[in-house]
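User: Sequence for TAXI family TRAP transporter solute-binding subunit below. Tokens please.
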Amino acid sequence: MTMLKLLQRLALGICAGSALAAAGQAQDTQMSIMTGSPTGTYIQIGRDLNNLMQQCGQSLEVVESAGSLENFLGVRQRSNTQFGIVQSDVLEYMQTFASDDPAVARAIAGVRIAFPLYEEEVHILARNDIASFNDLTGKRVAIGVEDSGTFLTASLMLSLAGIEPSETLAIAPGDALPQLQAGDLDAFFYVAGAPATLYSENEIDAEQFHLLPIQNETLEAVYTPATLAGGTYDFQPDPVELVAVKAVLMTYEFDPRGNTYHQASCRGVSDLSSLLLTGIDTLRTDGHAKWQAVDLTDIPPGWDISTCVNRGLDPEYQPNCTQPAPETPQDSEANAVYRRNICAALGC
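Assistant: Structure tokens for TAXI family TRAP transporter solute-binding subunit:
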């Protein structure tokens, strides 16, 4: 499937699903974020944001997904879905095709940036006899499921580099790993912020498999060159040169003066924005390691920040926290008399 056809299918899906978004207006508005697979970085970032919201007495449902394309679709059409994590190359190619294709232009209308996040490394786990990216020619390569950012990135990279595998298989990374280990695949792509749980929590034999270096001038001109530090994974003792793509938190341009669904969603977006700004140090300390690499000023070109996000970042904005303050323990009568006497003598 070509990139244009993939984006057109996305656009048609948005049009077909418009009634679903409208249905959310008649329900109690909840908050949710579209993330990724159970072993990916996106879902851990989503859980960190939910923890942040819970400190304010609110909740953010963390929804598993195929990845970037499904997440973009979810923000546009899924009821009670205010956020989705999306790869910046997905956004870039949507912008490219939007100028020539009205359906794609309609698909991206109303979608906004909430926050830029971090660089995601393109992991390609391969047999050790496959030494370079060019060696994927004629091999059996899994590129992720169709609605994932991994699928789009892998497809673009192979096309840009002129690499033609013997087979490109739409298999999720979590399913591809055992197939690689069984000899049914030669390599598979996985775009995820390191350290990715898939590699850190599974036994991978370094004598059979390695992360493929990606040193290709064409790809390095399109993507960000990156170095995966040695020891990031147990099977990977040495640094690996590869490329990366930025992850971005997307939202929708909810109207704060619109219907009740838009008003409530805008409040939720503003609340999370305010909490993220004031809690970024806590996220960097207690959340996924990728929070330490987040640059909140690195906005992808061609996209605007949501009005509701900017409202939440206003120093005067107060998030709608509903969690009651902890109750002060009540003194017994004897302790109360003691405190009064101490305060009278020493001052309190």
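The radius of gyration is 24 Å.
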